[in-house]
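User: tokens in, sequence out, please.
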């Protein structure tokens, strides 16, 4: 239980510390002012609800005005379970448990899978809708956080254009329960992704599966290309790539060392969807040195593409 005095502004840091669960988080009766994503300040956004993948964190400010308890409700997206917290003026108080909402049914179209069987396997799907992923059961009047809402509070320090693009294809086999990056498990990979110290590059995530993957980079922050101008794209250490979607991020390789880079769904990581990033004063291998391509649609980082 978190205690408050009515009309007090309270800052909450919400952390999805689960192994495999994506949560829809809300506080019935309270608006939330979102002020940070993954610990990085963003311009305030007023929301009613947010969807959080494993490892994501969001800071929100709430101003409860009534002398009553409020429930922090986190529903799993499949509605098979929930986690609850309490905000209250006194420790003995408990808020009402909100009624369970229906599970959003994800069709093949919702998950962009219909187009994945198109004759052109390299077709970019980043501008296709992923409405099924975005459905939370919130009323139409409610504001649900979208990645496109995130705008860095201060300007990015590195505004260079990326020198090259690394594509990461997120794949898997549900029958064998093997999850891959660029067609290979971590055990079968060709070693780390090699980055030259100080270089600026684009990471392009192509989700070829029917599951969302929270891709998490250790040691450095990525800048999510979400439609904001280049100076204000938000920093993220975890980017949830919805089913069938293509997202892109920018990265400055400014932290020397070898860093883990993986899906933060624990069993996906353990069964292969992981690699490492080696940042050093080194030549870039030819297989990782594809020239930067011009994609006019970069910036589709939101959940309603």
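Assistant: Sequence out:
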């Amino acid at each position: 239980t978190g205690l408050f005095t009515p009309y007090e502004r309270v800052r909450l840091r919400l952390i999805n510390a689960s192994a495999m669960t994506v949560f829809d988080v809300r506080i019935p009766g309270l608006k939330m002012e979102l002020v940070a994503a993954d610990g990085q300040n963003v311009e305030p956004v007023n929301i009613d609800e947010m969807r959080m993948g494993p490892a994501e964190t969001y800071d929100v400010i709430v101003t409860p005005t009534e002398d009553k308890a409020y429930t922090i409700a986190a529903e799993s997206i499949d509605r098979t379970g929930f986690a609850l917290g309490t905000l209250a003026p006194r420790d003995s108080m408990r808020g009402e448990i909100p009624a369970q909402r229906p599970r959003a049914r994800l069709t093949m179209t919702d998950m962009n899978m219909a187009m994945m069987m198109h004759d052109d396997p390299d077709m970019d799907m980043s501008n296709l809708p992923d409405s099924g992923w975005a459905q939370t059961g919130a009323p139409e009047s409610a504001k649900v956080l979208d990645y496109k809402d995130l705008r860095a509070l201060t300007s990015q320090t590195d505004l260079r254009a990326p020198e090259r693009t690394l594509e990461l294809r997120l794949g898997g086999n549900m029958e064998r329960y093997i999850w891959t990056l660029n067609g290979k498990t971590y055990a079968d990979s060709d070693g780390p992704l090699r980055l030259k110290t100080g270089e600026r590059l684009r990471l392009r995530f192509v989700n070829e599966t029917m599951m969302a993957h929270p891709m998490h980079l250790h040691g450095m922050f990525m800048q999510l290309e979400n439609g904001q101008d280049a100076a204000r794209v938000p920093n993220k250490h975890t980017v949830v790539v919805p089913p069938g979607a293509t997202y892109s991020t920018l990265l400055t390789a400014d932290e020397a060392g070898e860093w883990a880079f993986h899906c933060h769904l624990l069993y996906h990581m353990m069964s292969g969807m992981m690699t490492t990033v080696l940042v050093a004063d080194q030549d870039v291998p030819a297989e990782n040195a594809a020239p930067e391509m011009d994609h006019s649609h970069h910036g589709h980082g939101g959940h309603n593409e």
